[in-house]
């Protein structure tokens, strides 16, 4: 399961896999509670697929979590609230700062607004593509919106800060200072 474009958040496939290079760069992770049933690589040592309901499953207290939740406007907030309570790991979502569900992201210790859009992968490991309806030309499709990585906890924050990924960081201290 994972992040899909907001334009097609209901009724279309929610299976847009995290690129392996990104998981390798930020990991290793202990748990992926939103693992795709069919996947070419694991994002964590332990994987929970949709049939096993990672949202209802208790996440081990010490596990560093990789969370790329299904981007269904009625579900994404539930996943992010659970991640904010767990406080260990990294979440990947669209930068929808105006939404109610994004409030959980503001609780992260460190947020990276990526400087480029990601290209997600299909269950076979190939990059997601789009077909031009007029020309029939197939091209690589980016995520359809800006992406943020939200780090919860010291380990995740350090991994994100030292990743070398381009973009703009916002630390929790900055958010709290501006709110005061």
Overview of the structural elements:
By secondary structure, the protein is of the alpha/beta class. It is built from four helices and nine strands. The protein has helices at residues 20-26, 76-86, 154-161, 172-179, and strands spanning 31-35, 46-49, 65-67, 89-94, 110-114, 129-131, 138-140, 147-152, 167-171. The chain has a five-stranded mixed sheet.
Layout: helices, strands, pairs:
Layout: H1 20-26, E1 31-35, E2 46-49, E3 65-67, H2 76-86, E4 89-94, E5 110-114, E6 129-131, E7 138-140, E8 147-152, H3 154-161, E9 167-171, H4 172-179
Parallel strand pairs: 1-2, 3-4
Antiparallel strand pairs: 4-8, 5-8, 5-9, 6-7
Major beta sheet summary = 5 strands, mixed
Give the count of structural domains: 1
> Approximately how much beta-strand content do the residues carry?
15-25%
Number of strands: 9
Residue-averaged pLDDT:
88
Uncertain residue segments: 1-12
Which structural class matches the secondary elements? alpha/beta
Distance between the termini: 37 Å
Element-by-element helix/strand order: HEEEHEEEEEHEH
Q: How many helical elements? A: 4
CA radius of gyration: 16 Å
Strand order of the largest sheet: 3-4-8-5-9
Shape: globular
Helical content stands at 10-25%
What's this model, at a glance?
By secondary structure, the chain is α/β, with parallel strands linked by helices. The chain has one domain (6-118, 145-179). It is 19% helix and 22% strand.
